[in-house]
Design brief:
Helices cover 2% and strands 37% of the residues. The protein has 1 helix and 59 strands. The strands form 15 sheets. The protein has a 5-stranded mixed β-sheet with strand order 40-1-41-42-43, with no helix packed on it. The longest helix has 12 residues. It is elongated. The two termini are 48 Å apart.
């Protein structure tokens, strides 16, 4: 078989699974020291996980966004955003939740990791106001007396008469505090009356939270997730359970089912503040609207495979809507008919992978952790969402870094290719009898496409993926072919690894395979092949959970020695990267030896093939989260791009000695 243009194969499912494990495993202590101003400065692409928005009623162009990387402010109705988190700790991965004072719009409250903060200057500075409280919820403001606020802290309810300067315990007789699920609702026509939802139903207080009684007659499900009140008539209430919405016209005395199921759970339940006969429901994946008691209509942003955190309606203009998602903020100005991205300046994208197109490093692609593809055509100074792909979750991207000719991306389980730098895309069709597999990556010095499926088979194409054939014989073990690499010096030498089967090597273009018996690890590998030293290669093992270990071989992969990464407390490495144009230059990301949450990550650099390491963190946030990916053009070892969790892409023009945020305009 001719082996003239070869695409290696890299699987993304295992890496994605390990990333999720790393993000959800939390240690014992959280560092709540206020972060520096530099720690709130990230790079593009724009977007990231948006938890919710709050709007200034007096100046509706002013919006605040609570994210998983701090609080941001817009003075342009969402067109552009700036960080507004001075005085807050940076705790990547956890939501910063917001509540704005209805009468004094410069006053906001924020909660993160059970701590409460307050600003009195519109987000210029924040200070904690939870002395004596532990594990607190976002406060609820009394709309008739904004100095009076309520919160749940631990297993008790607290009330403050002075905006959080001091707190007193509320008796809360009859209320199962440990089961509370929603924030409080204060009746604006009678502020002594409060409602709250719990896993045991809805409860009502008539004496400013001192005593409570059930108010859930007619509910078929008492596991309450959301509560809402008609802003013009406080006798009308709405409640959401696991998948249903109920209405009460009697101040909670009785409830009726509104006749629609919402699979996936209700994330937001919103009464239109300008037109209270309009009701909105957002689930994790869809947004619905019901007007004047009619039928529910779907108005979900049809722009990506989104996961929704919350939904909001403009306080004064019912046609302006906001959907807060894991990938960014989306805005509609025509009542949900069309949506656009409203994330410029929200520099908190979680970048799972980077790829450089062409030898000069000008064009860069980035895959967000939650499945969006971005492109920069000017060295990272400006980013756009890539269009032309079907709706679905984008898992990976790979590009021809030498010739600048081809790009492939994986959308759900289908591969799409582009020959014009991502302007247009076409489906790479594979025989339906072949199982889903991994994404082809380009070795532009050759001319054959190779990819793997999940049934011990490797496929090849001689026409850029138009038609496919199987190597024969099949690989030795089922479920082997998770990843395939082609040696840069000899295209007849291939490596393949699997989720459970170890590392295999072929010396005849895939016709026969032998297991590399001394390869460590068991759940897959990432290989980095030295283009200058034919027998030198590096390996990062995947052993079921982060962190992993790094190894080096100088005999073509038969014997492997552990790499000593000096600053790693236990020798573990989260990611490994090699500079293609100078393969003795390596980067490694490690997790600091700390019980803080999140544990800061350190970027290390080696210029001697891993024999020694130095810290290369200059310019990166001191609270940098999981370091995701490094990419560089093949002919220039000075230009580097680095993905940082919760902070987007950072760029270096001096080989990683210093970093700066890639712009997010």
């Amino acid at each position: 078989m001719p082996m003239n243009r070869i695409f290696a194969v890299v699987i993304v499912c295992l890496a994605a699974a390990l990333t999720c494990i790393a993000q959800t495993t939390g240690p014992e202590r959280i560092d709540l020291t206020p972060a520096s101003k530099a720690d709130w400065t990230g790079g593009g692409p724009p977007g990231g996980e948006i938890c919710g928005v709050a709007q200034d009623r007096r100046n509706p162009q002013v919006l605040y966004a609570g994210t998983t990387s701090g609080i941001f402010k817009s003075s342009s109705g969402g067109d552009a955003w700036v960080a507004a988190s001075n005085g807050l700790p940076r705790v990547d991965g956890l939501c910063y939740r917001l509540e704005i004072d209805p009468s004094q719009s410069a006053i906001l409250f924020a909660e993160v990791f059970g701590r409460i903060y307050k600003t009195i200057d519109g987000g210029v500075s924040w200070a904690s106001i939870d002395s004596g409280l532990t594990d607190s919820a976002l406060p609820t403001i009394d709309p008739t007396n904004p100095d009076r606020i309520y919160t749940v802290s631990g297993d008790r309810i607290f009330r403050s008469p002075n905006g959080g300067r001091s707190w007193t315990v509320v008796r809360a007789a009859g209320l199962p505090v440990n089961e509370i699920e929603t924030t409080f609702i204060v009746d604006p026509s009678n502020p002594a009356v409060l409602y709250v939802g719990s896993h045991e139903g809805i409860f009502k207080s008539r004496d400013t939270a001192e005593s409570w009684s059930p108010a859930d007659s007619g509910l078929s499900d008492k596991r309450i997730s959301r509560l809402a009140m008609d802003p013009t008539n406080s006798t009308i209430l709405y409640a959401a359970t696991s998948d249903r919405v109920f209405q009460s016209l009697t101040s909670g005395a009785s409830w009726k089912d509104m006749g629609h199921s919402f699979p996936g759970g209700v994330q937001s339940l919103i009464v239109d503040p300008s037109n209270p006969t309009t009701l909105y429901v957002a689930t994790e994946t869809e947004v619905f609207v019901m007007q004047s008691g009619g039928t529910w209509q779907r108005i979900t942003p049809d722009v990506a495979d989104i996961v929704i955190n919350s939904f909001a309606v403009d306080l004064l203009d019912s046609s302006t809507l906001f959907t807060c998602t894991w990938t960014g903020l989306f805005r509609s100005t025509n009542a949900g008919k069309t949506w656009s991205v409203s994330s410029s300046g929200l520099t908190l994208q979680n970048v799972r992978q980077l790829a450089v197109l062409g030898p000069d490093g000008r064009t860069v692609f980035a895959v967000g952790l939650y499945g969006m593809l971005f492109k920069s055509a000017n060295y990272g100074d400006h980013w756009d969402i890539v269009s032309g792909l079907p709706r679905g979750r984008i898992w990976a991207v790979t590009a021809d870094s030498t010739g600048g000719r081809m790009i492939f991306t994986l959308v759900d389980d289908e591969i799409y290719g582009s020959r014009d730098a991502g302007v247009t895309w076409s489906l790479v069709r594979i025989d339906s009898s072949l199982t889903a597999g991994s994404l082809p990556t380009l070795d532009s010095s050759q001319s054959t496409v190779i990819r793997a499926d999940f049934r011990d088979r490797i496929l090849y194409s001689l026409d850029d993926g138009a038609t496919w054939s199987l190597f024969k014989p099949r690989l030795p073990n089922p479920y082997l072919s998770a990843s395939v690499w082609i040696h840069p010096h000899n295209s007849q030498i291939l490596f393949a690894s699997g989720l459970i089967s170890g590392l295999y090597r072929s010396r005849d273009g895939g016709q026969t395979w032998n297991q590399v018996s001394e390869a460590p690890g068991s759940l897959g590998y990432s290989l980095f092949l030295d283009v200058n030293q034919a027998e030198t290669m590096y390996m990062l093992t995947h052993e079921g959970s982060f962190p992993s270990h790094a190894y080096k071989s100088t005999d073509g992969g038969f014997r492997w020695e552990p790499m000593r990464v000096d600053a790693s407390p236990d020798g573990t490495v989260e990611f490994l990267a090699m500079v293609p144009s100078k393969p003795t230059i390596l980067f490694a990301g490690i997790e600091d030896d700390s019980d803080a949450f999140p544990r800061p990550r350190t970027l290390l650099k080696s210029t001697d093939g891993g024999a020694s390491w130095t810290v290369a963190n200059s310019g990166l946030p001191s609270t940098a989260g999981l370091l995701g990916s490094i990419a560089s053009p093949p002919g220039d070892d000075a230009i580097l791009y680095l993905g940082v969790a919760g902070a987007g892409v950072f760029k270096s023009t001096d080989g990683g000695e210093h970093w700066r945020p890639a712009a997010a305009r």
